[in-house]
Amino acid sequence: MGTQEAIAYGVPMIGIPLFADQFTNVDKYVAKNIAIRLDIQTITEERMDAALNAILRNPLYRETARNLSRQFLDRPLNAIDTATYWIEYVIKYGEDSLRSPAMDMFWWQLSLVDVIGFLLLCAITVIAITIFVIRLTLKMINDNYNSSLHLKKTS
């Protein structure tokens, strides 16, 4: 909850990712100008001091974090009311009302492998037909040229 709390209160962060999705999350926060990333392998006292000074003294980080906080907190219902609404919704309409159709799909359908395969087959068919037409045209031109040469030799 640390990053969510920091965003809610408009506080810029210093991120030191260690594993899993932390690297991606910190990179996203850096791109939004609400965080500075430090690498655990190369962290030094000087780099930490520079990061702290940048976060504390550069108004860009504070303003961007405050703007993101305003967006985050601008909701029609507070968290308790939202949770209550969705719990009552599931009770009223059943658990399947929020079930994603993706749960009933095979991995290859979810990844659109079947669609990619179909489009690839269409592309290969178009290329094969194009090659066939070009070869047929070249053969007709070649046959016409050879017959005209044969007529010139015989006359």
From TrEMBL:
Keyword set includes Signal: no
GO molecular function: UDP-glycosyltransferase activity
Gene3D superfamilies linked to this entry: Glycogen Phosphorylase B
Keywords: Glycosyltransferase, Membrane, Transferase, Transmembrane, Transmembrane helix
Keyword Transmembrane helix: yes
InterPro entries per record: UDP-glycosyltransferase, UDP_glucos_trans
Family assignment from sequence similarity: Belongs to the UDP-glycosyltransferase family.
Name of the protein in question: UDP-glucuronosyltransferase
Lineage, uppermost ranks: Eukaryota, Metazoa, Ecdysozoa, Arthropoda, Hexapoda
